[in-house]
């Protein structure tokens, strides 16, 4: 059975009757993005099986492979105001599938999940709910 590693960031909502919440001038409401970095510190080659965006669109699609001891980055962003982004990238190894899931919605908690076979371990670092969130998935042997 594969182990799931989960990092959930909480969303803080600031609101009060009659008060406006300041928004940075450079960010439009709904402009959410996630830059995902995969650091493969194992000797396994990760080969892309499939990838999908269920909300938003890819800015940089996941690469076809992640060689051993290499780092790659892919990213997705929202396509509408008050929208977020959610995507998955699934790779195979000799031990089984490795799946990366990212979700940075506008109004709910963000999720960053890495599902790996028992022989591997995945640590999720730097997850957050920022407009321009950055997350790192670090793959190692168990």
Automatic annotation (TrEMBL):
Keywords: Signal
Signal peptide: 1-19
Protein name, per record: Uncharacterized protein
